[in-house]
Design brief:
There is one protein chain. By secondary structure, this protein is of the alpha/beta class. Helices cover 39% and strands 13% of the residues. The strands form 4 sheets. A 7-stranded mixed β-sheet has the order 2-10-9-8-5-3-4. Strands 11-12-14 form a 3-stranded antiparallel β-sheet. A two-stranded parallel sheet has the order 1-13. The protein is globular.
C-alpha cells in the first residue's frame, strides 16, 4: 500500500488537500481542541461554530481583499445550486428596481404598479450568459428552465464559443463579437446580470483577465449590469478585483476544501434590494426558496439551517495556510506559483506536439485544468498513457466523461515536486511514443 507522499493526485474534484490540513482535520474530527467532541458533533449555534465562521471569513477577506461593500455567505449545493440561486435572487433584484421606479412615477399605492412591472418584466427582462464551456452552458440552461413557464425567451446567450470554432469549447471569441443586452440608454433592455464562468473545469478554458467590455460604469445607475462569476475551479489561485463583481461563487472542493460548502461573495446592496415575496408572485415570478435566499442566509450569518462546521473549518485552515505561505504577497504569491506549475506542464506538451494535442486555444489555456489528447485522441494510446501514469502513482488524469482525453488538474495543493514527477513522465512517454 503506497504512502500518501508517494501518490501524486491530479483529480478535478474532489481535489487534493494539503497533508498538514488533513492531519489537523483528522485530530479535529475526533477531539477538537481537547473538548472531547468532534467538529462534526458540535452545535452550529455554539460559540465555537460562530468563531470558526468568523475566522474563515476573516481569512478569505484578507486573501481576496474583499471590500466592506460585500458580504460572505456559506451555503449548500455547490455551484449547481447557485445556478438557480443566481437567477432567483438577481431577478428579484431586477423586479425591485423596476418596482421602485414605477412607485416613484405612479405613487406607492397605485393600482397600476403591479400591471406596469408585470408588463416590463415580459418585455424587458433579460439575463446575459457568456457560454464558454460545459458549466456555463449548464448555468444558462438552468436559467432557461426556471424562466420558461413565464412564456418568453429571457436568456440571452451573448456568446457561445462553440459557434466560432469547430463546435467545441476551445476558445473565447473576441469581445467585440459578443451580443450583450444593450442598456436602456441605448434603446435596449438593461440585463438583470451578466454571468460568466472564470474557469471551465471540463474543457480547460480560462478567462485570461476580467472582460474589458464588462469593466464599465454607466452614466445612469439604472443601467448598471451586475456581474456574476462562477470561480469554483480557480478560486484562490490568482488575484481578483472583487469590487468589479456583484456576485462571486464557488464550490469548495477544488482549491478551498472539501465538498458540502459553497462560498458566495455578494454585494450588500443587493441583499436589501428585494421586493416582498407577494409582489414577486403578483408579477408572475417565484421568490427564492428560503435555503437559496441570499438575504435570509446573510441575515442569519449563514446559520439559517445546520451548516457543516467541519467543512468550513477545513476551508479556513486551507486559507490560513495560504496566508502563512505567502504572507504579505497573499494571492500574488499563489498566482505566481500556479502560473509556474502550469507553464512547466504546457512546455512539455508543446515540445511534443506530435504526441500531445492541447485542446484549448493558447490564449485561453487554463492554469488549473490542462486538457489534451494523446495521439490525436487514439483511445488505445490514451489507455496506455493512463495505465503508465497509474503505475507511477500519478492519479486522477482521466478527462471528464463528456469529452474524454486527459486532464491534469493543477490545483493549489499540487506541489512543484509532484508536477516535476508528472512532467518527467510526460517526457518519457512522449519519447517512447514518437512516430
Amino acid at each position: 500500500m503506497p504512502d500518501r507522499s508517494e501518490v501524486a493526485y491530479f483529480g478535478a474534484g474532489p481535489a487534493p488537500l494539503p497533508t498538514e490540513v488533513l492531519v489537523k482535520g483528522a485530530e479535529a474530527f475526533v477531539n477538537f481542541q481537547n473538548t472531547g467532541l468532534s467538529l462534526a458533533e458540535i452545535s452550529h449555534r455554539s460559540q465555537t461554530a460562530n468563531q470558526i465562521l468568523a475566522d474563515t471569513k476573516a481569512a478569505l477577506t484578507t486573501l481576496l481583499e474583499i471590500p466592506d461593500s460585500h458580504d460572505i455567505l456559506f451555503m449548500h449545493g455547490g455551484g449547481s445550486a447557485e445556478f438557480s440561486a443566481v437567477v432567483l435572487n438577481m431577478v428579484a433584484v431586477w423586479v425591485e428596481k423596476r418596482r421602485r421606479e414605477a412607485e416613484k412615477d405612479l405613487g406607492q399605492n397605485s393600482p397600476k404598479l403591479i400591471e406596469r412591472v408585470r408588463r416590463e418584466l415580459q418585455d424587458d427582462l433579460r439575463l446575459d450568459y457568456l457560454v464558454t464551456g460545459s458549466w456555463s452552458l449548464k448555468a444558462s440552461q438552468e436559467a432557461a428552465n426556471l424562466l420558461e413557464p413565464l412564456g418568453n425567451d429571457f436568456v440571452n446567450v451573448a456568446v457561445d464559443s462553440r459557434k466560432s470554432t469547430s463546435g467545441k469549447f476551445d476558445n473565447i471569441p473576441p469581445e467585440d463579437t459578443w451580443t450583450l443586452t444593450q442598456p436602456r440608454a441605448k434603446g435596449g433592455k438593461t440585463s438583470a446580470f451578466v454571468y460568466y464562468c472564470d474557469n471551465e473545469t471540463v474543457d480547460g478554458v480560462e478567462f485570461p483577465h476580467f472582460p474589458k467590455c464588462l469593466d464599465q460604469t454607466p452614466k445612469d445607475p439604472n443601467d448598471e449590469v451586475p456581474i456574476v462569476a462562477d470561480m469554483s475551479s480557480n478560486f484562490l489561485s490568482r488575484r481578483v478585483d472583487v469590487s468589479k463583481h456583484a456576485v462571486i461563487f464557488g464550490g469548495a472542493q477544488k482549491n478551498i476544501g472539501i465538498t458540502d460548502v459553497t462560498l458566495v461573495i455578494v454585494r450588500k446592496d443587493l441583499l436589501s434590494t428585494q421586493p416582498p415575496p407577494s409582489f414577486l408572485h403578483a408579477v408572475g415570478v417565484w421568490s427564492p426558496p428560503t435555503i437559496l435566499s441570499w438575504p435570509v442566509v446573510a441575515k442569519n450569518n449563514s446559520l439559517y439551517n445546520t451548516m457543516p462546521i467541519f467543512s468550513i473549518w477545513i476551508a479556513g485552515e486551507v486559507m490560513r495556510g495560504l496566508l502563512e505561505t505567502h504572507k504579505d504577497r497573499q494571492l500574488a504569491g499563489q498566482e505566481e506559483l500556479a502560473n509556474t506549475k502550469a507553464k512547466q506542464i504546457y512546455d512539455v506538451l508543446d515540445r511534443y506536439l506530435d504526441v500531445y494535442q492541447i485542446v484549448p486555444n493558447g490564449s485561453v489555456r487554463s492554469r488549473m485544468n490542462i486538457c489534451f489528447r494523446v495521439s490525436g485522441g487514439d483511445a488505445a494510446q490514451e489507455k496506455v498513457f493512463l495505465a503508465g501514469a497509474e503505475e507511477q502513482l500519478l492519479q486522477g488524469l482521466k478527462g471528464h466523461r463528456s469529452v474524454g482525453g486527459i486532464r491534469i488538474s493543477n490545483y493549489n495543493a499540487v506541489d512543484v515536486v509532484k508536477v516535476r514527477r508528472l512532467t518527467t513522465y510526460l517526457e518519457e512517454f512522449a519519447k517512447k511514443s514518437k512516430p
